[in-house]
Specification:
The complex is a heterodimer. Chain A contains twelve helices and no strands. Chain A is mainly α. Chain A folds into two domains: 73-204, Formate dehydrogenase/DMSO reductase fold; 206-331. In chain A, helix 3 packs across helix 8 (216-235), helix 6 packs across helix 8 (216-235) and helix 8 (216-235) runs antiparallel to helix 11. Chain A starts with 6 loop residues before the first helix and ends with a helix. Chain B is α+β, with helices and mostly antiparallel strands. Chain B folds into two domains: 4-226, Alpha-Beta Plaits; 229-257. Chain B has seven helices and ten strands. Chain B has helices spanning 18-27, 91-95, 121-125, 147-151, 157-161, 172-188, 233-256; strands spanning 4-9, 53-61, 75-83, 101-103, 109-111, 132-133, 140-141, 167-171, 194-197, 209-214. Chain B has a four-stranded mixed sheet. A two-stranded antiparallel sheet of chain B has the order 2-3. In chain B, strands 4-5 form a two-stranded antiparallel ribbon. Chain B is globular. Classes of the chains: A mainly alpha, B alpha+beta.
Chain lengths: 344, 257
């Protein structure tokens, strides 16, 4: 103990014989005096040589890693599919497609909307306080926007589906038809935002790899949601031309985005090129991009289309996890942050 | 209404950690482990949910040669007590979806313990890596600027316990002036790399806890140009809206076939 230069402080603060007293003004004075006496340099600054170089502080992280666990990427995945499913329902109805497709798409949207809050609440540090989210609405907070969008989406989808089910049972009152259209339009609009905002949620942060890719993230998440919603409908039996076309386009976008992320070799993108997050990111990209695309182009046989849908869904789910892992790795890298800020 | 501020001066810090102790005791912040890091005398490592003052120990070899003529020290040993910056535009405050993080009447940024639900969004929106979620508690914590003490007319516990005036507390404009004078004085005395760390030009719009340092901000793990993440909102949302419109267009085209 005597070798420690600060034993005065340590002795004061960790003496087990006296119970920790509630700090008082006298106690703060005591701490100051003890510190002055036990200071390594007797309270005098030394003349100092000039140091050049921009080394970080022992390479320790500047930023804090995201605390989100497995629930949040899963929410991104399900929320995106639910939101896009509502869009598919509206457009299918607009173009007079079979009622079964509209109905199934709305059910996917509503079930997704019902599951999402479970994951969001489970991820909170204090789940019993989830209602605190509804105290305020803040346009400058993507998290707040997202919560309100999810609430609105759930409501609109519920109304749309309720009216849809009533119409299917022969209640073709003009009011119910109107409510159905209003519900579907608002569900599609909020659904689009639900699928897109998660990219903004990550992009508008201090995390280097997320904020650097803030324009690509919404595109990536929307493409995943688009192909995902079509894939879920295909797995439900709707092996129709529109879902195939959407599946092909989504896989093409995934492929192009994969090439974009692969070619963008800035140090800030290192988590997409090295380590665990990069491995997951690349596997996800190949599955949702070229993998699904090749399957769809090779054959339109139902088993192949279902395989392509599963391949895309698995890839897009893994890519959401890869983004979170990339964010964790990025927060640990002080040099990436410094380089990014020196350039801008 | 006065806006309060911290001026923390690396050239006056003696590395005693009285601020860390005083902060822990006054605010009854729980112990969060003790690791022998081997990084000089810094066994605290960083600010966090249960560390609201953090004394850094910079051991720097004198590769660039002596700054002062009479210097014989083979290396430079600099200390600095880090703290929440209480940003002019705070990323954590803007991002908080519950309104738990608020601006107090003394201009500081405060987490209201009874409102925070631990969503964790402030953790990734702080450009300085200050605020964090306490794993066992679930809520986010950071320096309160001793708002309880300030309301009673007392100065923050760390400033009160500092034996060298390395931590000064006062009115924002007055301390900014004092900091600039201090940097000027240090430079006159031959400390040519003395500077004020107070990012005024970025979207953070200045901080309420600024630092007189020797050397580069990076040496202290200070971001050279910190941005409040709200600065990224416009480009991210623009991309989101355009991409959403394209996605809807793709669906329409697919069904029109």
């Amino acid at each position: 103990m005597s070798l420690l230069p600060f034993n005065g402080i340590f002795a004061l603060s960790s003496d087990p014989s006296t119970p920790a007293a509630k700090a008082t003004e006298a106690r703060l004075d005591e701490i100051r005096k003890a510190a002055a006496e036990s200071a390594p340099r007797g309270g005098r600054p030394s003349p100092a040589p000039q140091i050049r170089g921009r080394e970080s502080y022992y390479g320790l992280p500047v930023l804090k890693a995201p605390v989100w666990t497995w629930e949040v990427p899963l929410y991104f995945f399900i929320g995106g599919i639910a939101g896009m499913s509502a869009c598919l329902a509206l457009v299918a109805q607009l173009f007079g497609n079979e009622a079964a497709l509209v109905r199934s798409a709305l059910w996917v949207a509503l079930l997704g909307a019902a599951i999402c809050p479970v994951f969001l609440i489970a991820d909170l540090g204090r789940p019993e306080r989830f209602l605190a989210m509804l105290r305020v609405a803040k346009i400058q907070s993507p998290m707040s926007v997202g919560v309100w969008i999810l609430v609105s989406f759930s409501g609109c989808t519920f109304v749309a589906l309720l009216a849809n089910e009533l119409i299917a049972r022969g209640y073709t009152d003009i009011l119910i038809v109107g409510v159905n259209w209003a519900g579907e339009c608002t569900a599609a609009l909020t659904g689009l935002i639900l699928a897109a905002y998660t990219g903004v949620l990550l992009g508008a942060t201090a995390n280097p790899v997320w904020s650097h890719n803030r324009r690509a993230l919404p595109a990536h998440f929307l493409a995943a949601a688009l192909g995902g919603a079509a894939g879920v409908l295909e797995l439900l039996g709707f092996l129709i031309t529109p879902t195939q076309l959407i599946g092909v386009v989504a896989a093409v976008i995934e492929t192009l985005l994969g090439v974009h992320f692969e070619l963008n070799r800035l140090p800030v993108n290192a988590p997409l090129h090295r380590g665990k997050s990069a491995t997951a990111f690349r596997i996800a990209g190949v599955m949702a991009g070229p993998g699904a695309l090749v399957l769809r182009l090779v054959s339109q046989a139902p088993p192949v289309r279902r395989t392509a849908a599963v391949c895309f869904l698995a890839g897009s789910l893994l890519s959401r996890y890869a983004w979170i892992w990339a964010g964790r790795a990025s927060a640990m890298d002080p040099e990436a942050l410094f380089q990014m800020q020196r350039k801008s | 209404m006065t806006v309060s501020a911290f001026l923390t001066d690396a050239t006056l810090c003696i590395g005693c950690k009285a601020c860390e102790v005083a902060c822990k005791e006054w605010n009854e912040v729980p112990a969060d482990g003790m690791t022998w890091t081997g990084l000089s005398y810094d066994n605290t490592q960083s600010l966090g949910a249960s560390t609201w003052r953090h004394v850094m120990f910079l051991e720097q070899p004198a590769a660039a040669g002596p700054q002062l003529a009479e210097t014989t020290d083979p290396f430079r040993w600099v200390f600095l007590s880090d703290v929440c910056k209480h940003c002019g535009k705070a990323g954590c405050l803007e991002a908080c979806p519950t309104g738990a993080i608020m601006r107090t009447h003394v201009g500081s940024v405060l987490v209201q313990k009874d409102v925070c639900n631990g969503c964790g969004y402030c953790v990734v929106t702080c450009p300085f890596g200050v605020i964090d979620r306490r794993p066992d508690d679930g809520r986010a914590f950071k320096c309160t600027f001793c708002y309880d003490r300030q309301k009673s007319g007392l100065i923050p516990a760390c400033a009160k316990a500092c034996p060298t005036q390395s931590i000064q507390f006062g009115e924002l404009a007055e301390l900014q002036e004092r900091a600039q004078m201090r940097v000027h004085e240090l430079r006159e005395r031959g400390y040519h790399d003395a500077r004020l760390y107070d990012p005024q030009e970025t979207s953070v719009q200045g901080v309420h806890a600024f630092f007189v340092i020797l050397g580069e901000p990076e040496n202290y793990n200070f971001p050279p140009a910190p941005e409040a993440p709200t600065a990224y909102l416009k480009s991210a949302w623009t991309s989101a809206v355009i991409c959403a419109a394209i996605a809807f267009g793709i669906i329409c085209v697919a069904f029109a076939f």
